[in-house]
Design goal:
Layout: E1 4-5, E2 8-9, E3 11-15, H1 19-31, E4 35-39, H2 42-50, E5 56-60, E6 62-63, E7 66-67, H3 68-78, E8 83-88, H4 94-101, E9 107-110, H5 115-159, H6 165-178, H7 184-198, H8 200-220, H9 224-235, H10 246-254
Parallel strand pairs: 3-4, 3-5, 5-8, 8-9
Antiparallel strand pairs: 1-2, 6-7
């Protein structure tokens, strides 16, 4: 089965001088779905890494003027999400073991290698790269959401006590979210965080209601679209509240019957 990264093959850089290794290792990598680029000259390999878009870097223990670990150190800086593998025959060497322990090297490939072990290593290397990419993407998304929440906090602090201040917050949130990637989950999270900024209890209420509705939808075996609509409605059932002055909301939360 080919290893895919969002419908595209993962680009792999192989830094190796030995033609036999290039041919045999390259063939196995291509059979797993990798796009293999080889360089015998470490300088050319480094220049390529500076251009990014590499998911796997494999360096021979000794390649031209540079040690394999030197090349992988550069890879760690230039393409930090790429998985790094070392081709070596000195697996018991302290430097190699330290590199693995310090996560400079994900794994080493022994020379000669066992094909089954090599295939497993290459597959897990792809999984590791995809996970690193996903974590990076989630971190960026989280940072964007935190910036949106900070902007909302400033708006609430400056206008929350004025008539219509809460409505302005809602409009600003909608504009900020719609301008993003359009992901429904991100939009929902932004709205819930907006409720939290207005009053922490509102976020707790939304989460409890979502959990209840999820159980109901599963019990009724609702279709996916209907369940999603119900779930979203549960999350946003208090969305109009930020349009009301906060002193009124505080009094209502303290004693809803009054």
């Amino acid at each position: 089965m080919a290893i895919k990264k969002k419908q595209q093959d993962i680009r792999a850089l192989l830094v190796e001088e030995n033609e036999i290794i290039i041919d045999s290792l390259g063939e196995i990598m291509r059979s797993l779905g990798y796009i293999v680029i080889t360089h015998k000259d470490p300088s050319q390999a480094i220049n390529m890494m500076k251009g990014g878009s590499v998911g796997l870097v494999i360096a021979d223990d000794k390649c031209g003027s540079k040690e394999g670990l030197e090349i992988l150190e550069i890879a760690q800086k230039e393409v930090p999400t790429a998985t790094r593998l070392l081709l070596t025959s000195r697996v018991n060497d302290d430097a190699v073991q330290s590199a693995v322990k310090d996560r400079l090297v994900y794994r080493y490939i022994t020379k000669p290698w066992l094909t089954e072990d090599l295939i497993l290593t290459l597959k897990t290397a792809a999984d590791t790269f995809q996970l690193a990419e996903k974590n990076t993407s989630l971190t960026l998304e989280k940072n964007d959401l935190e910036r949106t929440v900070r902007d909302l906090e400033k708006m609430v602090a400056s206008g929350g006590g004025k008539e219509g201040g809460g409505a302005a917050v809602v409009q600003a949130t909608q504009a900020a979210v719609v301008a993003g990637d359009g992901d429904a989950g991100t939009i929902m999270q932004a709205m819930i965080e907006m409720l939290y900024v207005f009053h922490p209890n509102l976020k707790s209420n939304a989460i409890r209601t979502m959990a209840l509705v999820k159980t109901v939808a599963e019990s009724l075996q609702l279709e996916k679209i209907a369940a999603a609509a119900l779930y979203q409605a549960a999350a946003l059932h208090d969305i109009a509240i930020p349009g009301v002055d906060r002193p009124i909301i505080r009094r209502w939360l303290r004693d809803p019957e009054k």
